[in-house]
Write a structure and sequence with these properties.
Layout (H helix, E strand, L loop, with lengths): L2 E6 L5 H9 L4 E7 L3 H10 L4 E3 L11 E4 L3 H13 L3 E5 L6 H14 L3 E4 L6 H12 L5 E11 L8 H17 L8 E7 L9 E7 L4 E7 L1 E13 L3 E5 L7 E8 L9 H7 E7 L8 H15 L7 H20 L3
Parallel strand pairs: 1-2, 1-4, 2-3, 4-5, 5-6, 7-10
Antiparallel strand pairs: 7-11, 8-9, 9-10, 11-12, 12-13, 13-14
Helix pairs in contact: 1-8, 3-4, 4-9, 5-6, 6-9
Amino acid sequence: MVLKLALVGYGYWGPNLARNFSKLPDAEVHYVVDSDEKKRERAKKEYPHAHTSASLEQVLSKVDAVLIATPPKTHFALAKLALEAGKHILVEKPVTTTAKEARELEALAKEKNRIAMIDYTFIYVDHVRYIKKLLDSGEMGKIASFYFQRQGIDFLRRDVNVVDDLLPHDLSMLVYWMGEKATRAKTVLAAGKSHFITEIEDEAISYLDFGDFTASMLVSCLSPVKVRKVLIIGDKKMVEFDDTKLSDKVAVHDKEIRAPLEAPTSYWDFLVKCRRGSTTLPYVPSREPLANMAAHFVDCVKNKKKPDTDISFGVIVTELMERINNTVRKGRG
């Protein structure tokens, strides 16, 4: 059986979804839905086999699942419409603009017994999955902290701030890596600044304390240098992930931190407490993350599997993001 898909939104991200889903032997982009006639014409030119429409409601009876790649403020209404029609859904991040809406979609997906998956693309990066296995193995010891840095010169959006646009990538990795431990932050500190568009922050910094570990996150769309880096500090090993590199994206530093039982009596005694070992650059076979994501969604729908980034996962990320955004907004002025 070939899964018939309706892709809603053919602007910035929609064509990337169309390209990857069209390559799958058991899926077909049957409809492209967009209110813009020029975008529908572009879709028809690039995918002659696909039908086009200006209305999702008109095509729901002809498809099995709906891919939503529209502006965030439209996600909730479109996802709700598709679920109520009994369709499986894939929604681009952020899943919704509020945690309340995300929880409502979670309940509706459960009621309708339908797959509701969120495209947190970085979870489908093979290097991110390698790091997950490393963390789960216990090889890194006790995890103390995460440092996320995501910067670059991107177009300034008027519909969402930099927290909504960029931070879901890092928050989703944190939740994926740490699971239940990352569902509730005891302390959230955050600040942001709107340099060019009023009340649309283009840079923000946040600090989350989960009790056993902490996470610091810096996001900006004003940097001339593109940075996509994560540092993970364990008491036995430390990991560096740099997604801007073409190869050797992951570095495992064999450095150990041991709290001294008593105060060191000399400089050399102090060095014994901080062991410095070698750095390993593991080979991680990889393919395009969106290809991994698309294949995972189709597999979950056809075989009734729980997605790695299902709607419940999205609720957790959205709740964390909402707390950060609320703190940022309180600091405005």
